[in-house]
Amino acid sequence: MRRFTHFAAIDWSGARGERQRGIALAVASGAAAPALVRPGHIWSRAEILAWLEEVAAAGEDMLIGFDFSAAFAFADAGAYFPEWSESPADIRALWSLVERLARGDPHYEAGAFLAHPDARRHFRHGRGDVGDLFAPGAGRLRVVEQHQRATKQAASVSNFNLVGAAQVGKASLSGMRLLHRLAGRIPLWPLGPVPARGPLLVEIYTSLAARAACLPPGRSKIRDGAALDAALGALGSPPARLAGPVSDHASDALLTAAWLRTIASEAAPWSPPPLTPVLAGTEGWTFGIV
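Structure (tokenized):
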């Protein structure tokens, strides 16, 4: 398997506004402890994009995980948005559609996309505002999400759901605008072969890192420096040595960067049995779900 020298994790946010306390970025280099990039800084999505562009320009051998979904469910219905004539045929066309409809929204938000009359039919927007094509119950799931639930590797929610603290739909849409801009500069696994050198993007769930660090289910959020160091130690990482309270966004990024370093050399995450080329090109996959 290809070797990387740096491992980055981005805890992402799809909330409205320029700067988001929910965004954190951490890098683990070599065998050193993971460290926050610009600790204490309140990031904007534009700044994360600029940082990624710098990594691409430098050709860093970096594996970069982002905590949002790269696509919506496709395989279950043969389309992202059934009954919509503009429903895209693959993942890159999906990013392009989101960008085209949301390009007027500031800060990589996607409100205009969700307001489009054909798009809004597929989403749960609020407790009393549910599109007529939103799937009954929890909503449509990608194959990777169905697989992780069936194998109890993680508990995901549909990214067609925009309601509640666990929703990831808005973050995923803003993330798709980011991926649209990075296309051709930083490849995304598993869309194509892993490049021999340079950076590579993967989709992650930070809860996988918490599980690998033996944190109990339902208590995966770390808000204390000592607890973070204990979790890092469980992954074989040196301690971050952050004293006192730590935001759960920072701890998620730090722990996940260390976890990526741990599993990147294993064969299993790169070849999960359910993954096919067609699935890779439409729904993508979450790195670490096997």
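The CA atoms of residues 165 and 290 lie 26 Å apart. The chain has two domains: 6-69+182-270, 91-181.
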